[in-house]
Predict the 3D structure of the following.
Amino acid sequence: MSTGYTQALKAEGNAPPMRPFTDRDHPNALKLKAAHDAFKAGDLDALFGMMTDDFAWVMPGRNVLSGRFVGREAIMGSFAALQANVDAYWAHPLDYFGSDDHVVLVAQVIARKGAKTLNCRECLLWRVTPEGKLAEVHHLALDEEAWDAFFNGE
């Protein structure tokens, strides 16, 4: 299944470079990279196969995307809300850091809606179960004020 996000990523040719992985990277960092690759490819079954059934996606802030979304259906609804509130959206991974319990993705986000553009960094803090499943993510925009303003149409 291809997503609008997948098509937008293909259309954006100037992604910032990502730090290359080395043999010192934690396996959970590689797992999250694989999950992100599945999402970019539109392979949602592979993506959700790496998550617990009660996976929680937490979007803080005060905007139309804010909330706690639990389970595949709710998370897909939050992805649909994102697509409904942008003309284009890119999240370019810059780095992945992992441990036995957590993984952090640092990304550069560029979003467009009409004449407005959002360009900021984000960190996604993922919790990993002892069995190696992704269980929860907290999405943290590093410029929350700009993020809220953009997604509130200001």
